[in-house]
Structures are given as structure tokens and as C-alpha cells.
Amino acid sequence: MTVGIIGIGLIGGSLAISLKESGMEVRVIGMDASQENLDKAVRRRLIDEDAPLETGVPRCDVLVLATPMDAMLDLLPRLLDMVGPQQTILDVGSTKETLLTGVKHHPRRGRFVACHPMAGTEFSGPEAAVPNLFSGKTCVLVDTQDSDADAVDVAKRVFATAGMTFTHLDSRAHDLHCAYVSHISHIASFALALTVLEKEKDEQRIFELASSGFGSTVRLAKSSPDMWVPIFRQNRDHVLDVLDEHIEQLSRFRTQLIKRDFDGFHERIRHANQITKILT
Amino acid sequence: MTVGIIGIGLIGGSLAISLKESGMEVRVIGMDASQENLDKAVRRRLIDEDAPLETGVPRCDVLVLATPMDAMLDLLPRLLDMVGPQQTILDVGSTKETLLTGVKHHPRRGRFVACHPMAGTEFSGPEAAVPNLFSGKTCVLVDTQDSDADAVDVAKRVFATAGMTFTHLDSRAHDLHCAYVSHISHIASFALALTVLEKEKDEQRIFELASSGFGSTVRLAKSSPDMWVPIFRQNRDHVLDVLDEHIEQLSRFRTQLIKRDFDGFHERIRHANQITKILT
Fold first, then answer.
1. What is an example of a Pfam family matching this protein (chains A, B) (predicted)?
2. What's the Rg (C-alpha) of chain A?
3. Using the beta-carbon criterion (under 8 Å), do B246 and A250 form an inter-chain contact?
4. Between A250, A274, A276, which is nearest B243 by CB?
């Protein structure tokens, strides 16, 4: 199987590693707007060769679109124009509604399978690619009724090879759930980093005093704006709803502190603890 | 050396493990309002025996106060009433100003050393005690000018044995810095958990979709209200300042989303990324 990975960063690179390490007979062609990324990917042996889109795409059985979301909006229709009826295109993007609306009436729409492997780290670029990133995690398949059945099978084979299990959502539900469980965490973490950077000018003090709890909460604040701003742009409305709710929850803690309502504060922490039942 | 640990939970229990595993000849007496905790601590061999305060305290060279902060306010003056000039009292509490103000004029004030080992997990109780919790971390020594020099030496010996290094702060600076690097992280995490629990009624969906990023950001939301409410109560003013700043940072992201000012959003994420320079 020849797999073309378009955007050879954390996700694309990690998927390349997983496929190669699975024992599957696979040749990986890397395509990327950055020649520097391609060179790094070749040196790390994430890809077997690099190629421009025009010559790379026709040689692939599967094309994995793994660029930031804004580039995907431009690339997906172009790829659909290029592929034939035996080729499959997958994406790994964090938002779906805008992407799918843009290709809704494309004559080759069926060759595309919208996928969201729920896995990642706060790092980016081919140097951030790691083995086993996807293992044991969930891959969301979105609006599969609009994809050809054989293309869905190919997508499942790729992510199952990487160790993933599957769930199905429609694009609107996907974007809404991701605003809750992923996008808001990033905004909260960025805002927390800014809060501390703003208030705590003495950086050495943060370094000395910050315990692992702080590090855990701000870990996502290391994430790349080039990746995340397009996500927030495309999922703006859902993200705004969840952000409003988050600010409201913080404001209630604030009011409780001002009123010295520590019984109420205690009760709300006890409620927050219920997240334990959901996350291990 | 006989060490009395008053409050045999995560921190007291982990310190007992560290002292015992260091090879130091140490006998640990556990004292706790909960007989259930004491029984667990004996079964886990965190402590060699349990005792009531009245008979336990006089037998100890060092007393480690490791209860929630509200109990400390009551216990510290009582302990100072009981100890002689060869005994040392340490605490491990997360706030200092209120605690120290309460014993400022106590005739035995010098026997107390205010300590804050910057280490912990989101769990609590003797079952949460773990080896090496303190190793490589920083212990803040607070207002040591008010402690007897030999008592400070004892405190440093205890935490150095557990693998810690030291920094000094006055009580006001300590409470302010901890509001930044610890207390606000907890409130942010509690609020994020509440946001998701409020908005996302379908718990199975959270479980399936939540990736490690979300888990990292809400990890602290598992923390005990019995431990944290007294901290927020005692550090209320500093926490309110930092919370106001945090809500302001989130509100700016909100405004940028409403105005679709994604260039500004990008710039602020890039600034947040500077937290990388501080945290590894």
C-alpha cells in the first residue's frame, strides 16, 4: 500500500511510524509546503520519499490530509479533483462542519472519509512524531454516509493498524463535543499561562515553585498557534458557547470567594470531583 | 529520631515513606482525628504506632503538621503550648500568612518552622501516600527569622532527607506566589470540569472522546474540597486577584472570537507559549 501523507508533522509523522511499525507493507510519500519539514521527515525515516502534490498524489492508494485546518479547506477540494475511483482520502482534522460543507457537492465526495483520531501532544512538527500515539485511543468517523463504503473500510484499516477503535458522529455533533473535551481545555490552558506570565514577572520564582499540578494544567499552553487558531476559527460558535459557560463557572467561584460562601464553594468542588467517574 | 506526623494523609504519609526509606533511624508516631486513617497508616506501615496528641507529642523530637489548613489554625497554638525547647514543629501547609499571624506572639514561636514542600498529587488520604513524592522538588521555608536556628536546621534535615532543595520567602510573598502557581490552577481545573459536566450530559461521549490533553488539564479537578476550601479561605484576597486576571484573560479570548480577531488570538497564543521557557 502506498500512503501519501500531506502535512508531515506530529500527527502525520506519528501515523507514518505506526503504519511502518505494524509490519504492513507500506511505502510512505511525504508532501508538505515546507521543504524543511520534508527533509527532517526523510532524515527521521518517517517517509520513504518526498514529492510535490502533482506527482505524489497519483501514485498513492491512500492520502492522509494532516495539515493545519485552514490549509485543509484549500487542499481537500484540490485533492478530490485529482483522485480516481480507487483512491481514498482521509483527514485527521479537529473540526469537520466547515470542511465537509465545502466539498458537499463535489462529484468525488465519496472518496473522502472524515476522520478525527483523538490523540496528540502539545508539540508539533516532524520532530514531535512518536510511536504508539494512537494506540488504544478513539478515532471518530464523521458523516460516513457520505463516503463510499470501500473508502470507509480503507480508513478503518489505516487507523485500526495504528491501534485505534472507532466511534461515529455527524459533523455538527463532532464539532460540538470537541469544543467541550478538547478546544476549551486549550483555551483554558492558554489563558492560565497568560495569567501567570502577566502577574508573575519573576520567572525564576515560577520555575522554583511550580509543582507538577501547575505543569499539568498549563501543558497545553505550549501548543502551536498555527495549528489552533484555524480550529478556533472554524469552530468559533461552539467554542464561544463553551467558553461562555467556562467564564460563568469561574465567575461563580469568584462570587463565592467575594461573599465568603465557602460551603457553596465546597459543594461545587465536590461536584467537579465527579469528573473522576468519567476520566481515569 | 522520633517523628510525629499529625494528619497522616498524602503528604504526611509520603514524608513518612521518604524518611523510612532514607536509611535514617526514625520512629514514626501517627496522630490523626480519624482512627480509620490511623489504622490504614499502620496497615501500610507508614507509621510505627498511633497515639493521641496528649501522649504522642511529648515523645517526639519533630512534629510534622500535615492536616488541612483549617485544622492547622487550631492545632498549631495547641502544639506550641505543649512542646519543650528541644522539640521542633514543622508544617507542610499551602498558605502561611493567617497561620503565622495566629502564633506571632506565642512564647514558643521559635520552635515552629513554616515549610511548604511544593509537591503533591490530586489524591488524598493515607492510601495516596507514595515514595519519592518530594525528590528533586523545592521546599519553601517561610519567615525563618522568627524560628530558632536549631529548629530551622532540623526542618532542613527532614526535607533534605526526602530529597528536597530550599528557597526562602516571607509569608506574604509565599501566599501570593502560591496563588499564581498553584491555587489558580486548581480553580481553573475545577471550573473546567464543571463546564464540561454542565454542558456535556452524555458522559459516555466524554469518556470516548477525551484525549490525554483534556485529562491533563482537568487532573487537578479530582482534588479534595476538604483540603482546598480552607486554602482558598485563607488565601482569599490573593486568589481573588489572580482569579480576576484569569477571567480577564479568558474574556479577551472571548472578545477576539466574537470580533473574529484571529490575528490577535494568534499573537496571544504565541505569548502563552512562552510558558515553555519556564516549565520544562
1. PDH_N
2. 21
3. yes
4. A250
Alpha-carbon distance of A198 to B275, in angstroms, equals 11
Residues B78 and B106 in one domain: yes
Q: What is the CATH number of the domain that holds B263?
A: 1.10.3660.10
When scoring A94, A207, A246 by the number of chain B Cβ atoms within 10 A, the one with the most, hence best to mutate, is: A246
Count Cα atoms within 13 angstroms, Cβ side, for B110: 7
Q: Do B213 and A220 touch (CB under 8 A)?
A: yes
ipTM computed for the complex:
0.91
What is the C-alpha to C-alpha distance for residues B231 and B92, in angstroms, rounded to an integer? 12
Q: Can you say how many angstroms the Cα of residue B156 is from the centroid of all Cα atoms in its chain?
A: 17
Domains identified in chain B, total number: 2
Instruction: Select from B123, B149, B169 the last residue of a domain.
Output: B169
Can you tell me the distance from the alpha carbon of B116 to that of B234, in angstroms, rounded to the nearest whole number?
15
When CB atoms are compared, the residue of B211, B239, B253 closest to A187 is B253
Nearest Cα residue in chain B from A230: B262
B245 and A217 in contact by Cβ < 8 A? no
Binary contact (B278, A207; C-beta < 8 A):
yes
